[in-house]
């Protein structure tokens, strides 16, 4: 009988561990859906093409060049087996950015959507902090079926304050720097800032978020499985 009880306990623990692994994998899958390094490189290619073309030819032609290159990149991503939504997202962004540039009659207009999205992202993250519900914590709990009282753990809450604040700084810095460059009509530097403040800073923010997610999983899922 004791052996049966031990076996049942071992089986229950195995099931709980499997659930925890599945949830961690779901978290990693969400982060992977951001596009990863290759996705951000794909996004940078049309930007470089647009800025280069806008310095050599008329603005409408430069917009057409950026869209054409984005279309080629989209086809290549689809051939690599990426989901349609993920692969075509960059193309949609280029079309919208190009449309804004054409509407404003300025090459700098290509970056306006990104500038305002950065401001919106910083505001959203900051509001969640002021409301004492850091957004990364809400996201982690949503991925786990809202099963855990994550705000009852001080260390977990601190981790998510840190992760969410990292995004506030990231988006805020993007907005301040790129809005200033837009106002000074420094299109070349604006493109450089768009790329330089994209991959490296986003990678850092994601690393901090992964750390916060893992701390939450270790302290709440493993120690108190649902």
From TrEMBL:
Entry superkingdom: Bacteria
UniProt key word Transmembrane: yes
Pfam family, one: DUF3159
Transmembrane residue ranges: 39-72, 84-104, 110-131, 159-177, 189-213
Taxonomic source organism: Rhodococcoides trifolii
Protein's name according to its UniProt entry: Membrane protein
Key words, A-Z: Membrane, Transmembrane, Transmembrane helix
């Amino acid at each position: 009988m004791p052996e049966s009880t031990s076996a049942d306990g071992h089986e229950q623990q195995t099931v709980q561990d499997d659930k925890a692994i599945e949830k961690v994998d779901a978290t990693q899958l969400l982060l992977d859906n951001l596009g990863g390094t290759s996705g951000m490189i794909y996004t940078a290619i049309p930007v470089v093409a647009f800025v280069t073309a806008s310095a050599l030819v008329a603005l409408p032609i430069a917009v057409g060049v950026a869209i054409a290159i984005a279309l080629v990149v989209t086809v290549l991503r689809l051939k690599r087996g990426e989901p349609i939504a993920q692969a075509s997202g960059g193309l949609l962004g280029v079309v919208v950015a190009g449309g804004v540039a054409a509407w404003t009659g300025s090459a700098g207009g290509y970056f306006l959507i990104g500038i305002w999205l950065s401001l919106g992202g910083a505001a959203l993250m900051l509001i969640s902090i002021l409301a004492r519900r850091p957004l990364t914590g809400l996201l982690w709990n949503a991925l786990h079926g809202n099963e855990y009282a994550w705000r009852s753990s001080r260390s977990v809450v601190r981790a998510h304050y840190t992760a969410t604040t990292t995004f506030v700084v990231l988006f805020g810095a993007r907005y301040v720097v790129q809005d200033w460059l837009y106002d000074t009509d420094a299109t070349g530097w604006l493109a450089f800032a768009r790329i330089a403040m994209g991959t490296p800073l986003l990678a850092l923010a994601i690393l901090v978020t992964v750390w916060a997610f893992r701390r939450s999983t270790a302290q709440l899922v493993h120690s108190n499985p649902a």
